[in-house]
Amino acid sequence: TRGDNDFRKEVEKDEAIENKKKKPFQKMNQKIMVLEKLKNEPEVNGSRKEVEKDEAFEEEKKKVEKVDLFKNEPEDNGFRKEVESE
C-alpha cells in the first residue's frame, strides 16, 4: 500500500544518512584491513615489495590515528590545530 512505501522510503533515507556519516571511517578501516591482508600475504617479489607495503601500512595507520584523535578532540579549536599541524 501507499503508506507502507512512504514509510519504507523514510527508513531508507535515515539509513542512507547514517551510512554517509560512517563512510569516511569505513573507508579508512577497509584500507587498513586490505593493508593488513597484504602484510600477511606471502612475499611475491622479495623484500622490496614488503618494505613498500610496510611503509604504506604505517602511513595509513597514521592517517587513521589522526582521524581518531580528531574525533575525540573538543570542537572549539580542534579543527584549526589539525589544519596547522598538516
Automatic annotation (TrEMBL):
Origin superkingdom: Eukaryota
Basic and acidic residues bias (residue ranges): 1-19
Segments for region (Disordered): 1-24, 41-86
Protein name: 19105_t:CDS:1
The species this protein was found in: Funneliformis geosporum
